[in-house]
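Input.
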Amino acid sequence: MSQSQHLKPVQDAPAKEDAGEQSFVSHLVELRTRMLRAFACIFVVLFALMPFSNDLYGWLAAPLMAQMPGGGHMIATQVGSPFFAPFKLTAFVALFIAVPYVFYQAWAFVAPGLYLHERRLALPLMLSSTLLFYCGIAFAYFVVFPLVFAFFTATAPESVTVMTDISHYLDFVLKMFLAFGIAFEVPVATFLVVRAGIASAAELGEKRPYIIVGAFVVGAILTPPDVVSQCLLSIPIWVLYELGLWFSRRFVPPEEVADENLPSTAENP
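Output.
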């Protein structure tokens, strides 16, 4: 065997390493580009909403102001609160508005590395997760807040004037939005559990009593200490769990779940 034949594998190794490094660097560059686009979208939306910061806060405070006694108003106990509270709200609104584009950038980055069946599943789940999160926020604002604030203001002693600090109110509202937004992801989580073969729809149906108890425990932890808000979070979690079970029974056949648990040769994207 000639000397050149002995040297050929040694010469090919650096070329393969260089190709791997170039591929890794190209992925980092693409990730940076996707992240910059996502942040740019958020800042553009934030810049467009800044002139309406006070209007946005007034809209957010409307459920509480509607329950205030005559002449009631909110207060600012810190010097910077009149500016920072509306600005913080505007930043969160900009993020909520830009979420679909942010998810699209994440999808565009990971999609080339997914198999065909994974791409078919990931995109609907991403869209449904976003929509359900928005539905959770809308449910909290239009259904939960009027009932909860009516309960709080009605139970206040006569000697107490209800005047909420704008920063504390914003923190409370954002926590409620996050709690209900995450709670409304229950159908997606249930579907993924069945789709991944962790448990079947029949097994999850048998665990319904534990789910109901767990829903009320979660409602007690994530909501203010009153029965109204606890039930307004716990009951939707239960209903959404049943919705997730229905989708799992309809769109995940048992034989497909069994096939997912078997080792198989990966198909090309």
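The first helix runs from residue 3 to 49.
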